[in-house]
Every structure is written in C-alpha cells, then in structure tokens.
Write a structure and sequence with these properties.
Layout: H1 2-20, E1 24-27, H2 29-39, H3 41-61, E2 67-77, H4 80-89, H5 100-104, E3 109-123, H6 127-192, H7 198-233, E4 240-243, H8 256-266, H9 268-289, E5 294-305, E6 314-324, H10 332-398, H11 404-439, H12 442-446
C-alpha cells in the first residue's frame, strides 16, 4: 500500500508539472509575421506617432475658425484713471465725481468685469503653409508606420530563418554524433579482433567528445534563435515558440532595372524623403508669409458690476477689423527665409542620394542572391562528395587500407560540409527575401 501511494503521488506531481508547462506555439512564417504586425511595440509606437501627426493637421486647421473667449475679472484700485473708468463702466458716475478733489484723490473702487470676445481671422497667410507643413509631417509618419511594418516583417523572416538554420545545424550535429559513435565502435571491434590500435580508439573517443561539445552549442543556438524569434514576434515573456515550416526561397524574376523602378515607387524611405521635401517647401512658404499683413475681425460684449460677479450694472459692446503688418524686425524674416531655402536644398540633395543608394542596394541584393544560389549548389555537391568519401574511407578502414586519422579527417570535412549546407540554405532564402526588401515589396510578396 505504501509503494502504491508513493507511485500515485509521483504521477500526480508529474501531471501537475506537465499541466504547468507552457504550450509551445508552432507558427508558420505568415502566422509569425501576422502576429508580429499586431504585437510589435515599434509598430505600435509608429502608429502613435502617426496619430499625433494627424492631430497636428487638425490643430493647424483650427486657426481658420474663430476663437471665443470668456473672461471674468475683479479689479480694485484707487488710481484716478482706474477709479474713473470703473465707475463709468458701471454707469455709477455722478456729478460729485467731477469735483477736483474726487478726481485727484478718489476713494478705492472695485469692478467685476464679465466679457465675451470673438476673434475671426480674415487673412492670415501663415495658416495655409502651416497646415501643409503638418499634413506633410502626417504623411511622413504614416509612411513611418508602413516602414516599420516592412522592417518588422523582414526581421521576423530573418529570425525565422535563424531558427530554421539552427534546426539544420542541430540535425547535422546529431548526425555527427552518430557517425562518431560508429567510428568508435569500428575502432573497438578492430582492437578486439587484434588488428586495431588503441590509439585509433582513443582518437575516435576524442573525436566523439569534440562533436558532443558541438551538439551542446547547437542546442543552445537553437534555443537562443527561438527566443529572438519570440521577441520580434511580440510574444509575452515565458511563451515558447517554434517554427511549423521551412521558409520559402524567393526567386526574383525582375531585372535589376525593373527592381530599381519598383523600389523608387515602393521604398518608404524614399517616400518619406519626398514628404520631407514637401515639408521644406511648406516651411519656405511659411517664412515668406511673414512679409505679408494679417487681417482679423473682432467683436466683444462686456458687463460691469460693482457688487457681484456676472452682474450687469452696465453693459457695452465693440466690434471692428484690425490690420497688422510688421515692417521691420531686424532682418529676422530675411534670415528665416534663407534658412528655409537652405533646408529645402539639403533635403533635395538627400533625396537624390537616397535614390542612388537604393538603386545600389537593389543591384547588390540581386547579385548576392545569384551568389548564394551558386554557393548553395556547390554546398550540395560538396555534401554528396563528402558523404561518398567517408563511405569509401570507412570501408578501407574496415579492411586495414586506411588509417583512423584519414577517416576522422574525412568525417570532420563531412561535418563541416553539413554545417555549411545549413548555412547556405538559410543564406539563399535570406538573400531572396532581401531582394524584395530592397525593392520595398517584401511584405506584399511574403504574405501572398
């Protein structure tokens, strides 16, 4: 009974641990990218910046509307002019207030003033360029959201490939372990048969220890790759992630010239530079508008009371139109205009250089794609040759026609080739994706 109870408790504990272990999410590449587009903090931050920029457009447009101001003020004074005006506004002025002594030395008076004022801009040349400036900034921030989506999608693709490569490297390390154990077994069999050397067995055991160390590193690399992928996807801390498929290998069909044309239309960085150029032109218009006059219309209604706020011992209104034209400001407007012109020229130069850089990136990415395709083909041929070499040397070693050193050298070469193949497969897929990333269409292509 005691043993049965112990076994039952162990089963319960193991079941509880199994239940507590977090489930591993196996995501396809599209699912991983879709999750990242929803959860990635950089995309969310870019979205908030875009929202703020849209509010900036609304703020600029608000200057077209009238402003309405309510004011309640309490004033107390015995200054002759202040006391005189307060009594006059309250309609409490009497004949005695004209006495010389009362005019020069009035008693303290106080006044509650209630005012409602409306101001309507009629002509302000700065409003239109200010709105255009805000609209261009909003456009730039919206493009920033799309750029963040593109960058995040490509980062997920790259991290997905890192996991895929780490899985292949781990598989290669497992194969190396199996081969090393077989070599150790052959060395033991030959030594037991009296035709082998103890040194061969020791070399084989040392080789096994070496590949076991590589297996430990491969497992750790895979775990780290999964953590990096989970981070860019935006999973919560503690959630585990694994890949559910191999990432596709892109095969771009467009020429470098066509890809460059696509990049000029789709790269968000170029579009942001164009928006920045629009901002510079709007800033130049704004600087020039400072030379023009401003015309406003205004109207106000006020009530004055001596004893209570919001009272009405007397009321009055005023309305009119004002023109304001600054004639000289110490050459500040002149300098602002020159500065805006210089900024516009600088932005135009940056846009031109960005066009050149992106055209070069497209050409480079296509050349790298061709290079990685050829390297992958060479790696596959090298794997076939290395496997055949190990097979032949294994037979020769079994028949005492080859040494353990020769066999282990060939085995090390095979292990390296397997690792190179895993690297080449991942790099080939990454290079294909980088072509579309350089063209600015990666997200569109990967989510087809």
């Amino acid at each position: 009974m005691k043993q049965a109870f112990i076994i039952l408790m162990l089963v319960v504990v193991m079941a509880g641990q199994t239940h507590a272990a977090p489930a591993v999410q196996r995501l396809t590449l599209k699912e991983a990218i879709g999750t990242a587009l929803e959860n990635n903090h950089l995309i969310r931050a870019a979205g908030h910046h875009a929202d703020a920029a849209r509010q900036g457009v609304a703020i600029a447009e608000s200057y077209y509307y009238p402003s309405l101001t309510f004011e309640e003020a309490l004033t107390a004074s015995n200054a002759p002019t202040q006391a005189f005006m307060m009594k006059l506004d309250e309609a409490r002025f009497t004949q005695n207030d004209f006495l010389t002594n009362n005019l020069n030395h009035p008693s303290a008076s106080h006044d509650f003033r209630t005012a409602l004022t409306v101001n309507q801009p009629l002509y302000r040349p700065s409003i239109a360029p200010t709105r255009e400036l805000a609209a261009r900034e909003s456009e730039k921030q919206d493009l920033g959201v799309e750029a963040a989506r593109q960058d995040t999608a490509f980062q997920v693709f790259r991290r997905y490939l890192e996991v895929q490569k780490a899985v292949a490297q781990l598989k290669a390390a497992d194969q190396a372990i199996g081969d090393a154990r077989e070599n150790l077994r052959l060395a033991g069999v030959r030594r037991d048969a009296g035709v082998g050397l103890l040194s061969d067995e020791l070399r084989a055991r040392t080789h096994l220890s070496t590949v076991e160390q590589r297996l430990i590193s491969a497992r750790n690399d895979l775990e780290l790759a999964k953590l990096h992928l989970a981070d860019v996807v935006g999973l919560k801390s503690g959630q585990e992630l694994d890949i559910a498929e191999s990432a596709p290998a892109f095969a771009p069909i467009l020429t470098s010239e066509d890809l460059a044309a696509v990049a000029r239309e789709n790269r968000k960085e170029l579009q942001q530079y164009r928006a920045e150029l629009g901002k510079s032109e709007a800033a130049l218009k704004l600087a020039r508008s400072a030379y023009l006059p401003e015309v406003d219309a205004f109207a106000s209604y006020q009530m004055n009371a001596r004893d209570v706020p919001l009272g009405s011992d007397n009321d009055a209104w005023a309305a009119g139109v004002s023109l304001k034209w600054q004639l000289f400001d110490g050459f500040r407007r002149y300098r602002d205009r020159d500065r805006a012109g210089a900024e516009r020229s600088a932005t135009a130069e940056q846009l031109e250089q960005a066009n050149r850089d992106i055209a070069l990136q497209v050409q480079e990415s296509r050349l790298r794609r061709e290079e990685m395709g050829k390297r992958l083909e060479v790696a596959r041929n090298a794997l076939r040759d290395a496997e055949e070499t190990v097979r032949l040397l294994t037979r020769r070693f079994e028949n005492s026609l080859a040494t353990m050193v020769e066999l282990l050298d060939a085995q090390n070469a095979l292990n390296q080739v397997r690792s190179n193949l895993a690297e080449s497969e991942a790099n080939d897929a990454l290079a294909g994706g980088r072509v579309y990333y350089a063209a600015g269409t990666f997200l569109k292509e990967i989510m087809k």
